Structures are given as C-alpha cells and as structure tokens.
Amino acid sequence: MAATILDGSRIAQQIRSEVATEVKSLTAAGIRPGLAVVLVGHNAASEVYVRGKVKACEEVGVYSEKLTPPETATTEELLAVVEELNRREEIDGILVQLPLPGQVDAKRVLMAVDPAKDVDGFHPVNVGLLSTQRPGLVPCTPAGVLEILKRSNIAIAGREAVVVGRSDIVGKPAAMLLLNANATVTICHSKTHDLPGVCRRADILVAAIGRAGMITRDFVKPGATVIDVGMNTVSDSAEFQRFFAGNQKREESFRKKGSTLMGDVHPEVAEVAGALTPVPGGVGPLTIAMLMFNTVKAAKMRRGSRVPELSRA
Ligand code: NDP
Q1: For position 313, what pLDDT does the model report?
Q2: How many domains does the chain have?
Q3: Which element (helix H / strand E) includes 18?
Q4: What CATH number should be reported for the domain holding residue 225?
Q5: Alpha-carbon dihedral 188, 191, 192, 193, rounded to 10 degrees
Q6: Which of 261, 259, 257, 156 is nearest to 206 (CA)?
Q7: Residue 49, domain extent
Q8: β-pairing verdict for 204-207 and 160-164
Q9: What is the pLDDT of residue 312?
Q10: Per-residue confidence at 120, pLDDT binned at 50, 70, 90?
Q11: What is the pTM of this model?
Q12: CA-atom Rg of the chain in angstroms
C-alpha cells in the first residue's frame, strides 16, 4: 500500500494562522513581536530565503526589518550590527542569514546574538537548554519535523527513531527533540557501518543528508514514517530520469525549469513507508512557520510570560 503523504504545507499554514492569532492578541496588549534579518552581500539563494521570511512576517503581523551590510563587511562591523540589535527593545528575534562571506568569522557573529533573541536556536546557550529539556529557542527545521509528527498523530514515545545526519542545524537537534519526546534515538553519519541495516530498525526515519534520493527502499522498514529534510537540486537529465521517469508532473516542470527539487529519499520509498513527507511541500514550509513561532516565543519569553506548547506533547 502506498505511504500516506504528510502535507507539510497544510501544517505550516495551520501554524502560521495560530501564530497570527497570537500576534494579534499580543499587539492588542501593546507588544508587537519584531524580527531583524541580517543579509550580508548578494547571495541569490539567501535573498530568496530572506524574501520568504519577510513575507511571512507581513502575513502573521510580525514587525520585520532587513539589514543589508555590504559583501565586504568585516567581522567587527557585523558584531556591531548584532550588538545594536541586541540592545533594541522592539527587536525580539535576530536572524543572521548564512552563509556569511569568507572573510567573516561566522561563529563569532552567531555567538554574539543575545540567546534570548536567537530565533534560529543556534547559540550554545539554546543548544544546552534543549539538551537539558529547559524552555529555550529550538532550531526551526528540526522543530518543524516534530510538529509534522505530532500533528499527524504519529506516536514517538517508546519507538525507534533513526536520524541520518549530525549537523548542528538539523541532525543533532532533531535527534535531541526525538529523545526529549521519549523515542529511542540513533544518530547516523558518513562513518556509520551498515547504514541500511541501522535505518531499517527505525519506526521513524529522518533523512538530513543532502544527497538526492540516497535513502532507497532497502533502508526502510515496511510501514515506517519517513521524514525527508533533504533539499537537493537535480539538473542532470540522466539523474532526473533515474528518479522520476514516468512522473508526468515532474517531467513537465523539469522541462520548463531545467531542474527539480528533491529530497534525500528515493521516490520508491513511497511503496514501503507507512507515511512520508514530500519534497517540495514537506519539511521545507515548516522552517519559516517555526521561525514565526520562535519570534513570538522570544517576544513572550523576554517579557517573562510562559509559552504554551503549540501542539500536543
Ligand atoms: P550537512 O552537510 O551539514 O550535514 C549532512 C550530514 O549528512 C552530515 O552529518 C554527514 O555526515 C551526513 N552524510 C553525508 N553523506 C552521508 C552518507 N553517504 N551516509 C551517511 N551520512 C552522510 O547538511 P545539513 O544538515 O545542513 O542539511 C542536510 C539536508 O537538509 C540538506 O539537503 C539541506 O539542504 C537540507 N535542509 C533543509 C532545510 C529545510 O528547510 N527543509 C533546512 C536545512 C537543511 P558527517 O557528519 O560524517 O560528514
């Protein structure tokens, strides 16, 4: 039986509308959550991402501000930008869009963000809060993975979860969130022996690798839930054919655009998995929705109010 497709766009829209309601009541109480996005230079992909973030702010009623230091900005100059944003009362969230130009010490700049305004959840203080199960700001993409599972009523507690990928941005925090939700968690990476065998233990398999279609049916236990975080651009037509031959919709869009976006999970997995997130339209839309959620959470936490959980634990 074909896997149930978990509709990330629908879940993201649901979260955005909950956040918009929350923003409305906060604004009525005189608190308008505000997000500052720092976009250094002219990276085309970053410009697209930042446009999406600013648009989401407008949609949910969050105040937003875009700062655009030049490509030649130094570490010291960016530290000054971040410190100014740290001081400003009306700014609740600070997001430094990555990647930063080569001359900049990115770690130093990210470390300078006030942890209370760190809506990306990358600061070691927030990493520590997550790993000790204290309230803090959680990285947006992994938080989105958990929202998809919870809102799709997929049980986590007591189940085997395998996360492929151990980055600070996705793999590790996703594993920590699954552990906090009482899954038994295994983290895999490029040195893992018998990766297909380890993955086949998973009731919940999270792929955050960055390799198009690497997770084939041999990696998946029948009936497992598969969450595909990967975002890979396929522009080679032989590679495209290998994955999508016979898929008319994909073929049409590939002809038009010359490329297609696909995840780390091979399309054949839909024949084995119980549930599966698509790419596009799976985890991707959750990332911006959770950024909006984090901005509101930061606005409330900075003012000392307790933040209710978005969805059932
Ligand atoms: P990184 O490159 O930082 O991490 C990739 C991880 O995959 C590493 O831990 C690496 O292992 C592991 N890996 C690579 N090759 C293999 C292999 N052959 N077998 C097993 N493990 C392997 O990537 P990110 O975590 O930043 O991103 C992962 C994917 O998620 C990318 O496609 C990215 O575009 C996507 N992404 C999507 C987002 C969204 O909004 N949907 C947001 C962020 C990322 P090792 O540590 O040993 O090198």
Answers
A1: 36
A2: 2
A3: helix 8-28
A4: 3.40.50.720
A5: 170
A6: 156
A7: 30-119
A8: parallel
A9: 42
A10: very high
A11: 0.96
A12: 20
